[in-house]
Design goal:
The complex is a heterodimer. By secondary structure, chain A is mainly beta. Chain A is 0% helix and 52% strand.
Amino acid sequence: AQKITQTQPGMFVQEKEAVTLDCTYDTSDQSYGLFWYKQPSSGEMIFLIYQGSYDEQNATEGRYSLNFQKARKSANLVISASQLGDSAMYFCAMREGGYQKVTFGTGTKLQVIP
Amino acid sequence: DAGITQSPRHKVTETGTPVTLRCHQTENHRYMYWYRQDPGHGLRLIHYSYGVKDTDKGEVSDGYSVSRSKTEDFLLTLESATSSQTSVYFCAISESIQGRTSTDTQYFGPGTRLTVL
C-alpha cells in the first residue's frame, strides 16, 4: 500500500483564492511527522511546513496551514490568498517513528491563474 | 539555507561509464541522503548516511553505491551508468526544526540533472 497518497495530479486556482491540496497517509506508528515541500519550475525543493503526530494544533506558516485530521489520516495543505508565485509542484511526505527515512507522495501540480 | 551544494549540476554521460555525484554540506549534519526524482514517482530514497562510513540502503539502491569518508561529503556512484538512471538526483540533510529529534526535517540541495545516453 502507498504510504503517502496525493490524488490530485494537477489543480488550478484563481489568484487571491484559497486552495487545498490533499494528502492521505498510511502508518501504524503512533509517532510520525508530516511535511509539505514546494518545487517550483526552477527545480529546488523548498520545505514549507511540518506537523507532528502528537501536535494538538494544526501547523501554520504564513499563508500555509496544514489541516491535520489524525483519525482520517489526512494532512491537507491549505494555501490562503494564492499568488502567481505559488504555481509549483507540491509534495507531501512522512517520516515514521524514530526513523530518518522519509517517504514522499507523487506530487500535485498547482497552477495559479491571474 | 542548509548549506548544501551538489556537483556537478548537470551531466551527460554514456551507457556503461562510471559517474560520481558529490554532495557537500557545511553545517556538520549527521544525516545525509540521496534521492532520485522521476516523473510520476516523486522522490525515492537511494541511500542514506548516519555518520562517517555509516550508510544504509533506500528503496531504489540497485546500481548505486555511496561513500562518506568525511562528515561534509556524501558521494553517490553509478558504477556503470544505464539509461534507466537518467534522472534528477537530490542530496538532503536532516535538521531538527524544533530542537527535538522527532521534528527532524530534510532540507535539499539544488539537484543534479543526469542524462545517460
